[in-house]
């Protein structure tokens, strides 16, 4: 770890994550948080269309099938796409904690190549919380929930307020997202208070 880098392991004294009392029941499909999200949005033809479900405690399971548009090497998933799938799965933990947080650091191990047509079965878990820092880890396995491990990641997400998006995002997309008739999606994207 170089100077100024945050460790990816919760420090001693970090709090255990607490599942929000109104978090969706384990097994519930979460659905996209934003139609245009590259990770989960239905409006992105070449997106991952990743489908995430609430797990037990503060954990998520997710699936994504590698499409021809996701290739790096011929017939194989691009590493950045696999990192996106991990990022999206990890980011979905926020909905179980009911916080808004963005990825600060994401460290990925690429263990096995993932062919086009394979389905990546992902699992993410929150490991601890220290102030605004949310520590989480994820793993992705090929074709089965207990299939061979292809990717792993450790990450720190940083809790932010809604103004992170309104100050930094483009107004047209923010307005459109807020006007989404699917109020659950709007709540997932914009809920600030637990
Ligand atoms: C519009 C629709 C809304 C959608 C909502 C749903 C979103 C879902 C999206 C899903 C998509 C999937 C998800 C995505 O892809 S999210 C997209 C990718 N991520 C980003 O774009 C984030 C860009 N970075 C920033 O905006 C700022 O740097 C942030 C907000 C992260 C921190 O800037 P801020 O000024 O606020 O921070 P601070 O200086 O007060 O520090 C606070 C604490 O945090 C620690 N720290 C800081 N930075 C880092 C770091 N990089 N690594 C590790 N630790 C870091 C720092 O040491 C300090 O700790 P301590 O000293 O307290 O111990």
Summarize the structure.
By secondary structure, the chain is an alpha+beta fold. Helix content is 21%, strand content 28%.
Give an overview of the whole structure:
With 194 residues, the protein is of the alpha+beta class. It has one domain (51-190): Hotdog Thioesterase (Thiol Ester Dehydrase, Chain A). Helices cover 21% and strands 28% of the residues. It contains 5 helices and 6 strands. The chain has helices spanning 79-91, 93-97, 163-168, 171-178, 183-190; strands spanning 51-54, 59-65, 101-110, 119-130, 133-142, 149-159. Strands 1-2-4-5-6-3 form a 6-stranded antiparallel beta sheet. A hairpin with a 6-residue loop joins β5 and β6. The termini are far apart. Bound molecules: tetradecanoyl-COA (MYA). Tetradecanoyl-COA binds at residues 6, 33-34, 39, 87-88, 91, 100, 102-105, 131-133, 156, 158, 160, 165, 169, 174, 177, 189. It is found in: Cell projection, Ruffle membrane; Cytoplasm; Membrane. InterPro entries: HotDog_dom_sf (IPR029069), THEM4/THEM5_acyl-CoA_thioest (IPR052365), Thioestr_dom (IPR006683). It catalyses: (5Z,8Z,11Z,14Z)-eicosatetraenoyl-CoA + H2O = (5Z,8Z,11Z,14Z)-eicosatetraenoate + CoA + H(+); octanoyl-CoA + H2O = octanoate + CoA + H(+); dodecanoyl-CoA + H2O = dodecanoate + CoA + H(+); (9Z)-octadecenoyl-CoA + H2O = (9Z)-octadecenoate + CoA + H(+). Its EC number is 3.1.2.2. Pfam families: 4HBT.
Blueprint of the fold:
Elements: E1 51-54, E2 59-65, H1 79-91, H2 93-97, E3 101-110, E4 119-130, E5 133-142, E6 149-159, H3 163-168, H4 171-178, H5 183-190
Antiparallel strand pairs: 1-2, 2-4, 3-6, 4-5, 5-6
The site of tetradecanoyl-COA has 23 residues, from helix 1, strand 3, strand 6 and helix 4.
EC number: 3.1.2.2
Membrane topology: Peripheral membrane protein
Family: Belongs to the THEM4/THEM5 thioesterase family.
């Amino acid at each position: 770890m170089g100077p100024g880098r945050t460790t990816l392991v919760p420090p001693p004294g970090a709090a255990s994550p607490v599942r929000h009392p109104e978090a969706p029941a384990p097994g519930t499909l979460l659905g996209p948080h934003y139609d245009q999200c590259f990770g989960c949005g239905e409006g992105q033809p070449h997106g991952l269309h990743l489908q995430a479900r609430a797990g037990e405690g503060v954990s998520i399971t997710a699936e994504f099938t590698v499409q021809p548009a996701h290739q790096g090497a011929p017939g194989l998933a691009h590493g950045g796409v696999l990192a996106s799938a991990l990022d999206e799965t990890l980011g979905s933990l926020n909905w179980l904690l009911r916080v808004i947080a963005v990825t600060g650091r994401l460290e990925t191990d690429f263990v096995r190549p993932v062919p086009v047509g394979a389905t990546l079965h992902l699992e993410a878990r929150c490991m601890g919380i220290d102030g605004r820092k949310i520590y989480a880890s994820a793993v992705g396995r090929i074709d089965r929930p207990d299939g061979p491990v292809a990717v792993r990641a450790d990450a720190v997400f940083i809790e932010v307020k809604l103004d992170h998006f309104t100050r930094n995002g483009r107004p047209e997309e923010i307005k459109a997202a807020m006007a989404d008739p699917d109020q659950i999606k709007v709540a997932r994207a914009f809920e600030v208070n637990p």
